[in-house]
């Protein structure tokens, strides 16, 4: 058993969504060709790491993102509904340019409380279910034999942007209130939680497929291939 473990939160790759729908938990949304390339790039970049445990959201885009990494590591996934996308009353609505659901006054009644938020699953509930899955993954990784080179075992949770970002805000002791346009959680990025025993000691962020991310999706600036940004929990 290892005293140190790392649990990576991997966001899925680009989804084929030509109509600009907020698909949320809707079935039938798969990775685009670029999204599949992103997933393969992740496997190439981290497939040699001591990843011994993988949990995957039930949604198609997460399972397709996980597939190349699972093949590289020869690990059987655990399908975990606790790490799927958050619920949202706008699911199925269009948010394409010129046809944005938020321009309709009838939707404004859902926007009264951004702290909860009033339009979807409470942030506190998202953080609780995600952290429960994180600790289960940490325990599974810690219990597995350590590889010969002695590197700490790692686990991966393949999830979605809002649950991952909410988990990071919780881990760093920050407010859940945020601007969605400024989330540092790009396509196929890794938000990594570092543990010693069951104590979270560090949060880091990296973009193994950063060179493939379209400019419109980059969000917060990050130098692809550079050193991960590191944060200490408060």
Automatic annotation (TrEMBL):
<dbReference type="GO" id="GO:0016787">
    <property type="term" value="F:hydrolase activity"/>
</dbReference>
<dbReference type="InterPro" id="IPR050275">
    <property type="entry name" value="PGM_Phosphatase"/>
</dbReference>
<feature type="region of interest" description="Disordered">
    <location>
        <begin position="209"/>
        <end position="234"/>
    </location>
</feature>
<dbReference type="Pfam" id="PF00300">
    <property type="entry name" value="His_Phos_1"/>
</dbReference>
<dbReference type="InterPro" id="IPR013078">
    <property type="entry name" value="His_Pase_superF_clade-1"/>
</dbReference>
<dbReference type="InterPro" id="IPR029033">
    <property type="entry name" value="His_PPase_superfam"/>
</dbReference>
<protein>
    <submittedName>
        <fullName>Histidine phosphatase family protein</fullName>
        <ecNumber>3.1.3.-</ecNumber>
    </submittedName>
</protein>
<keyword id="KW-0378">Hydrolase</keyword>
């Amino acid at each position: 058993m290892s005293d140190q473990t790392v649990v990576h939160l991997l966001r899925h790759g680009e989804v084929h969504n030509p109509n600009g729908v907020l698909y949320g938990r809707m079935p039938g949304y798969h990775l685009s060709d670029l999204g599949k390339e992103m997933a393969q790039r992740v496997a190439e970049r981290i497939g040699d790491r001591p990843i011994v445990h993988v949990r995957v959201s039930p949604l198609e885009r997460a399972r397709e993102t996980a597939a190349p990494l699972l093949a590289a590591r020869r690990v059987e996934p655990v399908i975990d509904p606790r790490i799927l996308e958050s619920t949202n009353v706008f699911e199925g609505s269009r948010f394409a340019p010129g046809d944005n659901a938020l321009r309709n006054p009838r939707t404004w009644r859902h926007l009264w409380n951004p702290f909860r938020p009033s339009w979807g699953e409470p942030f506190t509930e998202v953080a609780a279910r995600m952290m429960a899955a994180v600790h289960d993954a940490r325990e599974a990784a810690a219990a597995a034999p350590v590889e010969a080179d002695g590197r700490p075992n790692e686990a991966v949770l393949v999830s979605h942007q809002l649950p991952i970002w909410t988990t990071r805000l919780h881990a760093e002791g920050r407010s859940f209130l945020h601007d969605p346009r400024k989330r540092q959680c790009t396509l196929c990025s890794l938000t990594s939680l570092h543990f010693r025993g069951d104590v979270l000691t560090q949060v880091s962020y990296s973009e193994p497929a950063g060179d493939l991310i379209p400019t419109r999706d980059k969000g917060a600036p990050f130098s692809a291939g550079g050193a991960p940004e590191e944060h200490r929990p408060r």
